[in-house]
Amino acid sequence: MKRSIFYFVFAAFALCFCAMTSQASAQATRTWVSGVGDDANPCSRTAPCKTWPGAISKTADCGEIDALDPGGFGTVTITKGIKLDGGGGEAGQVASILAAGVPGITINNTSANCLFDVIRNLDINGIQSGTVGINVVAGKNVSLEHVDIENFTQQCINFQPANSMNLIMYSTNLENCAGGGIKSSTTSGTNRLNIEKSTIQRSGLGVQATSNSDVNIHNSMVSNNAGGGVEANGATSLISIDLSTVSNNQVFGVHATASGTMRVTNTSIYFNNGIGMSTDAGSTMLTGNNNWLGANAGGDGTKTGSVTIL
Q: Which of 63, 85, 121, 179 is 20 to 30 Å from 259 by CA-CA measure?
């Protein structure tokens, strides 16, 4: 009798272990989505899922999800290290997210092993009712490559995590977001943002750095924004602009306020409907004396000092 009980317990344990092993093995390092897929599928290349959420539940931490064709694959919350790539399949195709009344992507990465998220080759459209294009809550590193974010009621990118994070934004377009292109702040540490070869246009305030934010803008264009071009707002805010264009913005071109610091070199600041370089009392506007300023409705403005080359 005792031997029978022992075998029963052992068999139950073995079944439980097998179930756990099966569940773990379901977490593939690479999965796929397709417009003709099904979230009941294993998300393999030959049996893809239909949505990002369906695939992310079957993708391991630090894994990758690729789109096989151009389709709309749903809004998604990312809680692990993941890469979403909408550019797989036929040449030039880009997958999309339509976000009516909600954020397009929420990044709340709490992984213990993989705090890096990549969003690549993706269109995120709020269709005039979505709240935020990409809402960054937690994690460590976020990379946006060839991403188009447009038509949201708040920011295209809300980069305001509680703890410091890093953002690389490359060849990305932010457009027509009423609350602004991108806003950065954190209450702990320092956010570090690098914006390269990107366009921020037709939104509220183009780029705003507030508490504990260090933003570098290089070879990019900030244009036609209703709330102003680029603003460093606060004593712990720093924005550096190089080889860029800030033009046709309302209110101001570049603005340092509330003890914020702006550093501007090799940049064209023109046709803004306000002061080109606007500096409030106690704030700092540093330039390398190599910018082109002109035709700003409120005047070109003046610097407070020169950029120091170390």
A: 179
Tokens of 106: 């929420």
Share the mean pLDDT of the chain: 91
Mean predicted confidence (pLDDT) in 119-126: 97
Amino acid symbol at 222: V
Whole-angstrom Cα distance, residue 163 to residue 183? 15
CATH class for the region spanning 154-310 = mainly beta
pTM of the complete model: 0.91
**Whether 107 contacts 144, CB under 8 Å:** no
Enumerate residues 6+ apart whose C-beta is below 8 A from 105: 75, 76, 77, 78, 84, 97, 119, 124, 133, 134, 135
How wide is the angle at C-alpha 206 spanned by C-alphas 217 and 105, nearest 5°?
A: 90
Pair of tokens at residue 218: 């290089």
Reading the block at residue 282, the tokens are: 């106690």
Q: For residues 28-54, give the mean pLDDT.
A: 97
